[in-house]
Amino acid sequence: MGSRASTLLREEEIEEIKKETGFSHSQITRLYSRFTSLDKGENGTLSREDFQRIPELAINPLGDRIINAFFPEGEDQVNFRGFMRTLAHFRPIEDNEKSKNAAVSEPLNSRTNKLLFAFRLYDLDRDDKISRDELLQVLRMMVGVNISDEQLGSIADRTIQEADTNGDNSISFNEFIKASFVVRGNCMT
Amino acid sequence: MTWFTFPGDNLLCRCLGISITAWLTLLFVFIIVPAVLGVSFGIRRLYMRTLLKIFEWATSRMEMGAKEKNQQLHKPYSNGIIAKESPSSLQQELQELRGSASCLRSEPEFEMADIFYFCRRGVESILDDEVTKRFSAQELESWNLLTRSNYNFRHISLRLTVLWGLGVLIRYGILLPLRVTLAITGISLLVVLTTFVGFLPNREENKPKNGGICVSNHTTPIDVIILANDGCYSMVGQVHGGLMGMMQRAMVKSSPHIWFERSEVKDRHLVAKRLSDHVADKTKQPILIFPEGTCINNTSVMMFKKGSFEIACTVYPVAIKYDPRFGDAFWNSSKFGLVNYLLRMMSSWAIVCSVWYLPPMNREEGEDAMQFANRVKAAIAVQGGLVDLIWDGGLKRAKVKDAFKEEQQKLYSKVLVGEQSDTTHLEDENQEEDENPEEDENTEDESNQDSTKGQ
């Protein structure tokens, strides 16, 4: 027994979220169920610990970064709106999609926004550039203790060399997009 | 004593007296005596069939109501919120991502887009993971007129509400007192048969014999009652307080049971020794163990602790599956205690379960305890129609071990630099040959208790 009924989510809120994110009514109620089941404290927001409690996420090497992406700058709690806004990036792109809300120039799940999400996983300090250090940090998270510092450093150097076109020794968002287009297949849809 | 007598009092007393007598007589004639003698009136099947028809009607009303509002009825997908593709290994997915035909090369190869893979897996697990949903009650396809399983079913029509109200009356006015009186009679005899309405055992020739161990999946303390109904067992389990503890202490007086404290590491070896001794003695009853170590919500079977499989003896697996349409039997011990749980059980429509006794299994040559445990688990899962999971039931309360994350990292490093001798100072884990990290079990620091029953 608990606050799992969607009666706690008002119709107006569902409509707003629908406009903002593009999810359907039933998807929103379903995700609300999931949100409340993760919310052990039952206060309407999720903390980082709530995410960490998911075993499959806790063993993901990039788990912490992904969790961070849900929390806005400097905050420790995310409410349902914020939760949905972040999840909206992962909604599949539909061909016949038209943005109904004129204020949003681009839907949250556009290709650019998806790539921006991934870019932000690297770019911690939000200066719109992936520096060598930031790249090294993510690499280290992904490989753990299995690769030496020197080898990892050379991997990072090589990656920046290949991707950097304007010679500033870091990867901008555009350079990131170009580098990712080498990848075939759209993984984030 | 003259103050007590009011004019209507006498009448009231007499009425009460008569109704209680009638009640108790009905109780004995229709329930207790037939149960003891093993005779059935066939009332149960009729009851169950009527209930099912009513539930279906209720669901169709709700669907109609939802269609009027142009919404889809919230239906819990049995396979999760998101459409997942068939699971493939880390190597395969990364290769697909990169579009390269060649396998691991000698030169380290890193793509910026590799993070997409981890990103996607991460968000997938946020939306729907295999573990956390096993520790809360299962969602139902159709509403069974209990508010406690009412997730998205709002007031649709007057008829439905009336029906629900009637259901409440029946459950709390008739079924609950019935079962409470039975419980009181029963508990004093240490036989609690109150919540029984349906019971369908199978394959009786595989019943556990002396000198063996009976293992089963665990959903609720009622599992014990169900199995005890069909044979005598010695139990192994966690010491409890409260009502449960009282019953445990009483049970010890009549036959040998093994209760221990889960957190006591010393206890673990003591228990293993006691188990071996008990099993070696062929005159003693078979032991009943729930190797999952905790209650799971009956949609899956989680990791079996290897302790009970290390003892060299025959294992008799039993699969227990509850029918969730009539009442949810799962005991969510973090949400409510035993008395609360029993009340909920007694005010459900019924508890219906199927019990399968599987053919006995023995440890084969060259098989270690963990592999044996997994084999038994797979057999139970297949018979009961449950999902076979490798995750530890202890994740209900504890955090996942870091070793699993390290395995993921190791796999990815292999993709980057190819097969190399690792400069690793990780513990030497018992790596099995496959690529799925979750299947590997860190056999060394097993801080969880091996064989436990109870919460």
TrEMBL record, chain A:
Cellular component GO terms, alphabetically?
A: cytoplasm; nucleus; plasma membrane
Gene Ontology molecular function, alphabetical: calcium ion binding
Every copy of the EF-hand domain together lies at 26-61, 110-145, 151-186
Keyword annotations from UniProtKB, A to Z:
Calcium, Cell membrane, Cytoplasm, Lipoprotein, Membrane, Metal-binding, Myristate, Nucleus, Phosphoprotein, Protein transport, Repeat, Transport
SUPFAM superfamilies recorded: EF-hand (SSF47473)
Entry's Pfam families?
Answer: EF-hand_7 (PF13499)
GO annotation (BP), single = protein transport
Q: Which domain of life is it from?
A: Eukaryota
Question: Where is this chain's protein located in or outside the cell?
Answer: Cell membrane; Cytoplasm; Nucleus
Q: Which family does it belong to?
A: Belongs to the calcineurin regulatory subunit family. CHP subfamily.
What name is this protein filed under? EF-hand domain-containing protein
Species name: Perca flavescens
Q: What is the lineage of its organism?
A: Eukaryota, Metazoa, Chordata, Craniata, Vertebrata
